[in-house]
Design a protein that fits this description.
Elements lengths: L3 E3 L4 E9 L5 E9 H8 L1 E5 L15 E6 L10 E6 L2 E11 L2 E5 L7 E4 L4 E10 L2 E4 L3 H12 L1 H20 L2
Antiparallel strand pairs: 1-2, 2-3, 4-5, 5-10, 6-7, 6-10, 7-8, 8-9, 10-11
């Protein structure tokens, strides 16, 4: 049951068919929450919405496979789907604490603290980019993750300079 995300309701749309009287088939679309899909089939195939995971995930271009979180703790550098208030968020774990996690988007300037295990719904196991599958154990992917995360202060500096340049260029217009 692979679906498509409906951002307005944070639910996935899953097409199916229902037989009507007389043997006719009618298209029926059911809405599932991410929790329901993970519980029912154990995974979600989803296209990313937003730019917080750039440069790895491009909005509405790349596809992620998210598996239901197993019992136990997640690991540093895992990309996780979690729920904060009523919003679903896909970010990366930067630090594992005894009672939670420090999490951030690869393209974000801020860190989120106190994300509990109970908030984490699933873990990304694969990304499909331009038709090519990237496994989370791939050496090139792991190199990117360590380079991008281990040099967090440098990344913040780069992102702030980039934002400053963008503001200066927009002032000239």
């Amino acid at each position: 049951m692979t679906g498509f995300a409906d951002r307005s309701s944070s639910r996935a749309l899953v097409p199916g068919f229902r037989l009507q009287a007389g043997g006719r088939e009618e298209l029926h679309i059911k809405r599932y929450s991410f929790e329901e899909m993970l519980e029912e089939q154990g995974y979600i195939v989803y296209t990313n919405i937003g730019d917080s995971m750039l440069p790895l995930l491009r909005q509405k271009k790349d596809i992620v496979e998210i598996r239901k979180k197993e019992t136990g703790r997640c690991r540093k550098y895992d990309m996780v789907l979690y729920k904060r208030n009523s919003k679903y968020i896909l970010h990366r774990i930067l630090k594992v604490l005894p009672d939670g996690y420090v999490i951030a988007g690869d393209h974000n300037l801020f860190l989120e603290y106190d994300i509990a295990d109970e908030q984490i719904l699933g873990v990304v196991t694969r990304v499909v980019r331009d038709g090519k599958s990237i496994n989370m154990t791939d050496k090139k992917y792991l190199f990117y993750v360590h380079l991008w995360c281990d040099f967090y202060p440098v990344r913040i500096l780069i992102l702030r300079i980039k934002a400053l340049i963008r503001r200066l260029l927009n002032q000239d217009k």
